[in-house]
């Protein structure tokens, strides 16, 4: 029968000599190879203590953005959900009431906003589609989970800290992609 690859290697069944039967030369040969690798530059890093730099186009977990006054940017227009090829985004819209101007920037806001991370392919189209500077993909990985429900990220998971009460958390959550205008395409 014709081989599928050219990697076929017939087994050598010749009678072993005394030199081969004591195995010491083979052991030393193996140790020399190990020692050679000892002094080579390591290909691995000690993650999570050390982290490799991300590519400038890396796209990770989404966040829902706030403006400098801490108001939610999202107006629940639905464009991100419409643009999403994986149908991963769902939301429910609500109307801003008088006295809530300090909470929501627009007259409408997302009372519920969910992203199904099991569906998301991190394409970034939601970020591109958003006219309100509200949804961004950051440099954070989606953490692993044993439960499928844990991958449904609600508004409470996505919304970044209020800059007025937690300026450090706000800057950290936005990360370098949002703070660096070259890292993305929808600065407004
Ligand atoms: S990154 Fe792509 S797949 Fe994920 S929610 Fe946004 S549009 Fe959908
Ligand atoms: S995140 Fe942006 S595109 Fe999506 S509903 Fe909110 S304002 Fe609209």
UniProtKB/TrEMBL annotation:
Annotated Gene3D superfamilies: 3.30.70.3270
Function of the protein: NDH-1 shuttles electrons from NADH, via FMN and iron-sulfur (Fe-S) centers, to quinones in the respiratory chain. The immediate electron acceptor for the enzyme in this species is believed to be ubiquinone. Couples the redox reaction to proton translocation (for every two electrons transferred, four hydrogen ions are translocated across the cytoplasmic membrane), and thus conserves the redox energy in a proton gradient.
Protein name: NADH-quinone oxidoreductase subunit I
Localization annotation: Cell membrane
HAMAP family from the UniProt entry: NDH1_NuoI (MF_01351)
Subunit structure: NDH-1 is composed of 14 different subunits. Subunits NuoA, H, J, K, L, M, N constitute the membrane sector of the complex.
Keywords: 4Fe-4S, Cell membrane, Iron, Iron-sulfur, Membrane, Metal-binding, NAD, Oxidoreductase, Quinone, Repeat, Translocase, Ubiquinone
Biological process terms in GO annotation: aerobic respiration
Cofactor: binding details: Binds 2 [4Fe-4S] clusters per subunit.
Native species: Hanamia caeni
Residues covered by region (Disordered): 163-188
Enzyme class of the recorded protein, top EC level: translocase
Record bears the keyword Nuclease: no
Catalysed reactions, as listed in the record: a quinone + NADH + 5 H(+)(in) = a quinol + NAD(+) + 4 H(+)(out)
Cofactor: [4Fe-4S] cluster
Chief site of localization: membrane
Annotated [4Fe-4S] cluster 2 binding sites: 84, 120, 123, 126
Family membership: Belongs to the complex I 23 kDa subunit family.
A molecular function (GO) term: NADH dehydrogenase (quinone) (non-electrogenic) activity
Gene Ontology terms: cellular component: plasma membrane
């Amino acid at each position: 029968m014709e081989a599928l690859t050219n990697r076929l290697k017939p087994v050598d069944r010749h009678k072993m000599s005394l030199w081969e039967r004591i195995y010491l030369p083979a052991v030393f040969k193996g140790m020399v190879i190990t020692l050679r690798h000892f002094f080579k530059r390591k290909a691995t890093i000690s993650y999570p203590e050390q982290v490799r730099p991300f590519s400038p186009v890396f796209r990770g977990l989404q966040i829902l953005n706030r403006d400098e006054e801490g108001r939610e940017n999202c107006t629940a227009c639905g464009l991100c959900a419409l643009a999403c090829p994986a149908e991963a985004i769902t939301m429910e819209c609500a109307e801003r009431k008088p006295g809530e101007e300090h909470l929501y920037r627009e007259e409408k806001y997302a009372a519920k906003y969910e992203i199904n991370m099991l569906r998301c392919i991190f394409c970034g189209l939601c970020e591109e589609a958003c006219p309100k500077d509200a949804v961004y993909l950051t440099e954070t990985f989606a953490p692993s989970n044993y439960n499928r429900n844990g991958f449904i990220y609600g508004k409470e998971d996505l919304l970044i800290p209020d800059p007025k009460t937690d300026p450090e958390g706000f800057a950290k959550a936005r990360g370098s992609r949002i703070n660096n205008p070259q890292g993305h395409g929808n600065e407004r």
